[in-house]
Amino acid sequence: MGIKVRIPTPLQKLTNNQSEVECEGKNIKELIENLDKKYPGIKERICDENGNLRRFINFFVNDKDIRFLEGDNTELKDGDEVSIIPAIAGGTDFREDQIERYSRQIILPEIGGAGQKKLLNAKVLIIGCGGLGSPCAYYLAAAGIGKIGLVDSDKVELNNLQRQIIHFMQDIGKQKTESAKEKLNAINPDVEIVTYPLRITSQNIMEIIKEYDIVIDGSDNFPTRYLVNDACVMSNKPLSHAGILRFDGQATTIIPHQSPCYRCIFPEPPPPGVIPSCQEAGILGVVAGILGLIQATEVLKFILGKGELLIGKLLVFNALEMSFRKLNIHRNNNCAVCGDKPTITELIDYEQFCELRSSD
Question: What's the rounded mean pLDDT across residues 43-50?
């Protein structure tokens, strides 16, 4: 067993279109020499005339950047995996700091440079900067989503901090969208953050969501959930849904007219008082975190076009049992909004279903 070398797209024409090859070498320098013997021309692409690694080329041994090891003298052993990461991957230019920032993603063969470019070009709207939106926004910003929209009309309160991890003590009284924007800018200045410090209504939602590739529903009430679902169906916008209460959570991914929408599962909102709000029934903070990260994962997979989405599946989580179940759900041909003959063709502003206003 030799050393597995991952070849980036721009160099694959030299390796007979192979994305992975095996080679030998006691260190990176010797590995490059041996690669060049097997695949002539590789060394001149990787090294300058003095034999030094070009500044727009980086190497990772397993998941470690050789610049923080011994450079091209980094020792190798059988079974090691070496990834060659150029600043131009999949035909895409990256700054040197971007190569370093996103290196752990770029070395994944399912992502690579082309996938990272998709993330940098993606536009995601998060409705609700609370328990679900907070962790979701953190990880999407860290992953390099190019544009993130934040919708929330509330201000930060002390009781939010138990689960809404994007807000800090000094943010109490501040608009949630501004508080969240500050944290996301601090994590990743690459990301454009657009704030909408308002409540979503039938009058403004279509104008807002049209700018984005996918919508994340992290709202805290049934009227907003149904409005967001209906607007996404009518505008053919993919939607990541999640709900949380006490120790329970559920999530699904909705591709309008291909998968079940929220109304296919729950045709209409419950009457007032039947389903308690988080403020009335409580919520374990980490449940919000788990479901928010599931939403972030679904969004990343959707943008990359990789993996199996929760399409036609309802993921049900219980923290006390530490159980996950995937239930099959089906598109309802008679659904009022996405069915073959929809009866809801205009957006509806539902009244609030309880006087107490939840914060998740």
Answer: 87
